[in-house]
Amino acid sequence: MTRIPAAERRAALIDAALRVVSRHGLAQATTRAIVAEAGMSLASFHYAFASRDELVDELITTVVGREQQAVLPDLIPGQTLHEIVEAGLLRYFEHLRSDPEHEQAMLELTQYALRSPERHPLAAAQYAKYIELAARSLELGAEIAGASWTVPVERVARVLVAFTDGLTLTWLVDRDDDAARAVAAAAADALTRMADTR
Amino acid sequence: MTRIPAAERRAALIDAALRVVSRHGLAQATTRAIVAEAGMSLASFHYAFASRDELVDELITTVVGREQQAVLPDLIPGQTLHEIVEAGLLRYFEHLRSDPEHEQAMLELTQYALRSPERHPLAAAQYAKYIELAARSLELGAEIAGASWTVPVERVARVLVAFTDGLTLTWLVDRDDDAARAVAAAAADALTRMADTR
DNA sequence: ACCGAAGTGGGACAGTTGTCCCAGTCGGTT
DNA sequence: AACCGACTGGGACAACTGTCCCACTTCGGT
User: What does UniProt give as the signal peptide span (chains A, B) (predicted)?
Assistant: First the structure.
């Protein structure tokens, strides 16, 4: 096996772990399964990480960062706010459809974090980032559409995140594309009503 | 130990299992943990159930039935449809607040079911029941308010379920009551717009 | 060329898990 | 009272898990 510095090995193991979790779930993501996916020996695992928990914690915190651009709206001038918001939601939906297992993995990681008091902050931080990202998108969208939010953007953003989560969960269960699009439309509707569209 | 027929033992074990899952998560719900919670010996478990999987499957299918009445709206005549729907959502939210671990357990069971192809139908059936229940409530609500849905009720119901899920997930993470109420209000808004309020 | 540190491999360990077995005991029917 | 099948308890097993250890190899700086 070629020699790899510990830092790179950590990254490689986290990538492998995410793949395993996506494919088979967190419960199946044993040290051996992760190491096999990464093509390493078992000892390398505990050379790079003190424990499996340490890897999972880092998996949770790092993976959120990559989610970033998915929800960012197309900023096409001339569109109404409603169109922009709905397009953003539909874009997220396409992202979900293209890699359902990934979103399922994220959900699973969140739920895992919720289980222990010391990990709960990880989930909270994850969501704080989502909300911040959503808030930025919403502000941008309003600007383009020449509208302004009549409710604090953070509040609108939180509602958007909630709607997105609901969309994700229900679609993962019934895989009903039309229904999901209806959810997106309804969500866009509700959100737009929190703005003053001059 | 007093003698208990197998059928009762199955019920007792399922109750115990739900308690364990609520408290510590599905991963911690080992045969031994469940049996300890139920105050039985380990052998009784495999006398009542062929395997742990069999118990979990039955846990998923039976537990949904008890959820039923939580979302049913107060049917106070004279209220607008918007008020009725929002009240229903807030009632669900109070239910969630009063026993968060239970909803967390339901979420976990759903995700578990999503993981294997042969269990996926269990999750789908679970959601079908949710949607049916929601549809009945929505129909009743519209009747009371003297309104009518302009979109098929099942479609409205699916959106309601999605919104409810989103509300649940986000509140479980950040425990922000005000934000959750804002989600409920926005959801009621979106849903009401799918009706013709004469 | 050499040497300490960084990285590697294989094997081992103890703890936990699902499942099973078997000898026993109870309760109701005959 | 006898008996048969339903139920019980304890212990065992093999598989799997996270973690550790130790001998070994390779690399970068001297």
Answer: none
